[in-house]
Amino acid sequence: MADSSPQFIDTAMKSAVQSTMEVSAASMKSIEKMAHLHLKIARDVAQHGAESAKALTMSKNPQDLAKVQAAWLNFSLESMTALGSALCGIGIETAKAWSKVSEAQMSDLGERVHNAIEQFSKYAPAGSESGVALARSAWNVAGQAYQTATKATRQAIAVAEQNVESAGKAGLNLVKSA
């Protein structure tokens, strides 16, 4: 069988390293996006805080103070809504990248198992045809179950994306109308 050869081991190791690098790259990209997002928020908060402090010092009556307070509250709600939406988006993007790597690994595994079953069937002793047929059938059922789970996962990610987008828009609309 070719699966015990040095070439197989070399290919498997290269595949594992490649998968690890892809997952690491996706994770680092997400971390970088989160860092940029947090820096942007810190900058915006500092800028808005300075503007609010200036407005407070220029306030001449309680109505002016109430306006400054309402503006700060509005800014805070908009920032929190935008942050939540952005973080969910980053999470969904990372999940998609990890899913892509996982699907590639499962596809490779599926091909290897299929090839192993076929290789075994060529050299199987007489009378083992039903066992080989059972192995093929079991592997096909497992493959179909995996495909169903993968499809469900993709649909769940798509629904999550739509929900995050809708919730973000609704939250911003609510803040703007307040």
Q: What portion of residues is helical? A: over 70%
Q: Structural class, from helix and strand content?
A: mainly alpha
Q: Classify the beta-strand content into a percent band.
A: under 5%
Task: Characterize the largest beta sheet: strand count, sense, and whether it forms a barrel.
Answer: none
Number of domains: 1
In whole angstroms, how far apart are the ends? 70 Å
Uncertain runs are none
List the helices and strands and how they pair.
Elements: H1 6-57, H2 62-123, H3 129-177
Task: Produce a short descriptive summary.
It is built from 3 helices and no strands. With 178 residues, the chain is mainly α.
Give an account of the 3D structure.
By secondary structure, the chain is mostly helical. It has one domain. Helices cover 92% and strands 0% of the residues. It contains 3 helices and no strands. It has helices spanning 6-57, 62-123, 129-177.
Keyphrases for this structure?
single chain, 178 residues, mainly alpha, 92% helix
